UniProtKB/TrEMBL annotation:
Ranges of residues in domain Zinc finger DNA-directed DNA polymerase family B alpha: 1-117
Record's protein name: DNA polymerase alpha catalytic subunit-like
Superkingdom per UniProt: Eukaryota
Transmembrane segments: none
Matching Gene3D superfamilies: DNA Polymerase alpha, zinc finger (1.10.3200.20)
UniProt organism field: Camelina sativa (False flax)
Gene symbol of the encoding locus: LOC104762854
Amino acid sequence: MYYKGIMVCDDESCKHTTRSPNFRLLGERERGTVCPNYPNCNGTLLRKYTEADLYKQLSYFCHILDTQYSLEKMDVGMKIQVEKAMAKIRPAVESAAAITRSIRDRCAYGWLQLTDIAI
């Protein structure tokens, strides 16, 4: 979804959807944010699936693929049964978790710049 680059007009009456931004300049607006239905609509194009959404999805995948964390949260009686059942698939799940973690950790959205916070 993120890499499709779908943009939606924020005007409730328009809701125009496009993949190609309009590079018309109007006033103080940024290039590529003017709705293609401009004379009929004063809306702004916004990403349908933002960088924040992508980061949240990667974080969610990291959470659900973390087998060690899920095993720590289980009762002792149930933990042994689940460990036996998970033994076959654990290498594949750990591999998927490692790949997801590496992609998420490379994402600049998760980094905090202290210079932006300082007054």
